[in-house]
Amino acid sequence: xxxxxxxxxxxxxxxxxxxxxxxxxxxxxxxxxxxxxxxxxxxxxxxxxxxxxxxxxxxxxxxxxxxxxxxxxxxxxxxxxxxxxxxxxxxxxxxxxxxxxxxxxxxxxxxxxxxxxxxxxxxxxxxxxxxxxxxxxxxxxxxxxxxxxxxxxxxxxxxxxxxxxxxxxxxxxxxxxxxxxxxxxxxxxxxxxxxxxxxxxxxxxxxxxxxxxxxxxxxxxxxxxxxxxxxxxxxxxxxxxxxxxxxxxxxxxxxxxxxxxxxxxxxxxxxxxxxxxxxxxxxxxxxxxxxxxxxxxxxxxxxxxxxxxxxxxxxxxxxxxxxxxxxxxxxxxxxxxxxxxxxxxxxxxxxxxxxxxxxxxxxxxxxxxxxxxxxxxxxxxxxxxxxxxxxxxxxxxxxxxxxxxxxxxxxxx
Length: 413
Known about the structure:
Blueprint: H1 5-11, H2 14-23, H3 33-40, H4 46-66, H5 77-82, H6 86-98, E1 104-107, H7 113-120, E2 124-129, H8 132-144, H9 160-164, E3 172-177, E4 189-192, E5 224-229, E6 244-250, E7 253-262, E8 267-274, E9 277-282, E10 296-300, H10 302-306, H11 310-316, E11 320-321, E12 329-331, E13 340-350, H12 353-362, E14 365-372, H13 379-386, E15 392-401, E16 404-411
Parallel strand pairs: 1-2, 1-4, 2-3, 4-5, 6-8, 14-15
Antiparallel strand pairs: 5-7, 6-7, 8-9, 10-12, 10-13, 11-12, 13-16, 15-16
Helix pairs in contact: 1-4, 2-4, 3-4, 6-7
């Protein structure tokens, strides 16, 4: 179900708080929906029971992005899905501090996830959204985290632990209803987070079909604008905007992209958040040669791939590309870097199923892991055709060498 403003009014009442507290200790699986609603209907209306169950489930799901605080926050399903991951929110807030930002406008703030990260980093934030429900939720979320300009805890949130958390770094967030296309208040920085899914929930990859379109930022005179983009954005669409395009991964998992305009930022950047570290890779424009495989097959981090920095990385590690359009490269010595994964290359051959099957049988290989890049053949198609029964294991990499299909036979990790 969809949460409404009336639902939020109920959920913030003492009765609604009791319903949510009751559900916090329940098994919320879909299979238990009827049992949960039947129990709630003894005290609440059907709409109240449904709203409480939906919010309880969203809070449980929200732990991944908001940690224990999710148990006190309000979400919509769509806003929770679009919210940035905590490591990315914290990193971006830190970048604003590093760039000397003193105040932020969060344009299309939604439920306030990024606003609260900026406020937690000590910045005053004004969030703007045209969705009254999300603005109401954002105000609630700031209040329960004591990040409002007037940090008075809402009903039921006045614990000693909560009081001790009031404005530890001086930041706060306030939220207002409005359309960002009508102009923005003054601030050092605008963070722009447009909707990147259509009414049917499908991802939008064209930046000018975002809601509002990316072109909206062209009218803003602020010193720095950071626009959150889909990680699948086409770099060619951003050429006219200038600035710096950054792709961010967390422990190798690509999370999002940001277009930074202002503060002298330019070019392409990959950022890796791992083990408490923030690692950057900026484009140096280096080129790598193309040639036959060397001793180690190397796969760069997803942020490097999306930023188009494979050539630069390969050159930095004295590597050799297999094909100019393939995001693998090979090296003579195993590269040691959190940006890279590597497999020892035992052999390689032109791709042909019968020849590959005979090769593996001769070497008693009975188990394979199949990776692919630039090959139309899928692991699900290939593995049954190999009909292997041996005791050894290998990693097979289906790819191309100067446009021709090949298979690399690598040691299993």
